[in-house]
Write a structure and sequence with these properties.
Length: 290
């Protein structure tokens, strides 16, 4: 195995809407599928990815009540096409689809099978997107055979916390309760002496799309996005699956194993991303399909 580090990717206007029910900068699904696209375009074979968060800026305006009165920026098209883009209530205005966007700074660490061509990766990053956002800049790309030879930047690991959803009742209620809980006053977040890392804090939790459940069979449909070779892949409508993730500083994370994320099919119609060696995932469907 080889390791590829893409440090400090500055991403402009990335999607921050998770399943139409949550606004979050934790775009894990986009990062995992970015690795898949990276492999297709550069010839390497990324197996897993770990995500270090550095910064996020939600695009919008804050009202008098601070964070709880946030109004995301909305976008409208610039042209009208045969009246189909007009609002149903105002014949002179374009219709509006709710959106939420953010600027992100992330570092992505990939476990790669096969050779790594840094020049091809640099060329790919010039036009690549993550969660729909443009990659404006990045640090020096590193590729090593030994993980210890990489210069991992400091920041916040994105880790899975589905263990906090293991409660009776509605999964949606458990998700909301976990995000709104207050951290215990006795929690330890600093490094401790000895080989045992300190317990993880229960703060800085966020909802994120961790999978999709198909609601229709896979079949050829008109209008589906084609591949780079002009082929039309099979298409299915789906529901996003929300899970719970956490931002943990690299210092507080201690000497635990790298929190790798990888994708898999739980069954023929359920696609998920999971953290390696994580607690079995508990995910809940959101209200509306994508």
């Amino acid at each position: 195995m080889s390791y590829l580090l893409l440090p400090r990717l500055r991403i402009r206007a990335a999607n921050a809407l998770a399943g139409n029910v949550a606004i979050t900068p934790a775009q894990l699904m986009a990062c995992v599928l970015f690795g898949h696209n990276l492999g297709l375009k550069t010839g390497c074979r990324p197996q897993r990815v770990a995500i270090v968060h550095h910064d996020a800026q939600l695009l919008g305006e804050y009202g008098s009540d601070g964070f709880y009165d946030f109004h995301p920026q909305q976008r409208r098209g610039a042209t009208f096409i045969d009246n189909v883009d007009y609002s149903s209530k105002n014949p002179h205005a374009l219709s509006l689809q709710p959106t939420a966007s953010c600027h992100l700074t992330l570092s992505l660490l990939f476990e790669v099978q096969g050779s790594i061509n840094v020049q091809r990766i640099e060329s790919f990053l010039r036009t690549a997107r993550i969660a729909g956002g443009n990659i404006d800049s990045h640090g020096k790309i590193e590729a090593e055979n030994d993980l210890d030879d990489l210069h991992l930047p400091k920041g916040f690991w994105l880790i899975e916390r589905s263990d906090l959803l293991q409660s009776e009742g509605s999964p949606v209620d458990a998700l909301v309760a976990a995000i709104g809980r207050r951290p215990a006053k006795t929690e330890t977040t600093g490094a401790q002496a000895g080989d045992v890392p300190p317990p993880l804090p229960e703060s800085w939790l966020a909802a994120s799309v961790l999978g999709y459940a198909m609601t229709t069979p896979f079949e050829t449909r008109a209008g589906a996005r084609q591949t780079d070779r002009g082929e039309t892949p099979l298409h299915a409508f789906c529901e996003p699956l929300l899970g719970l993730v956490q931002y943990v500083s690299t210092r507080d994370y201690g000497q635990r194993p790298i929190p790798w994320w990888e994708h898999s099919w739980l069954q023929d119609d359920v696609f998920v991303i999971r953290q390696s060696q994580a607690v079995p995932q508990t995910i809940s469907p959101s209200i509306s399909s994508l």
